């Protein structure tokens, strides 16, 4: 990797390699390879492409690559298929619209259709009291 950066020609390659090895200790080889490839191909942001990366920058990119590898290997969740639901008849939707717009007849009809629904029953009672 060091030969890919001409401005780093004056550095001692053995010392630089040792520094890299210390920095990436414990990281998987695939993450190290991906990080080196990204530096050599100029894909790492905010890196001066004329110089080899510091050992800290290289280790940081290796950790990013390790996280990417782990994310790629995680099992993907499959979306559950939608269960078809019965459609609401058009006349019921019209009753709901009319009741929302204040129709007393629509509220009474909904209360008759859904006697167990306390909200609709209360709205129908309110409509009946307002009619008196």
Automatic annotation (TrEMBL):
Q: Which domain of life is it from?
A: Bacteria
This protein's name: Uncharacterized protein
């Amino acid at each position: 990797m060091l030969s890919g950066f001409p401005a780093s020609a004056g550095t001692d390659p053995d010392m630089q390699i040792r520094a890299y090895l210390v920095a990436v200790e414990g990281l998987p080889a695939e993450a190290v390879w991906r990080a080196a490839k990204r530096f050599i191909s100029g894909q790492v942001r905010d890196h001066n492409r004329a110089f080899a990366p510091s050992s800290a920058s290289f280790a940081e990119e290796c950790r990013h690559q390790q996280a990417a590898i782990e994310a790629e290997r995680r099992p993907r969740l499959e979306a559950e298929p939608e269960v078809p639901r019965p459609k609401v008849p058009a006349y019921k939707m019209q009753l709901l619209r009319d009741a929302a717009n204040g129709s007393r007849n629509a509220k009474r009809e909904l209360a008759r259709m859904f006697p167990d629904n306390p909200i609709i029953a209360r709205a129908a009672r309110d409509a009946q009291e307002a009619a008196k």
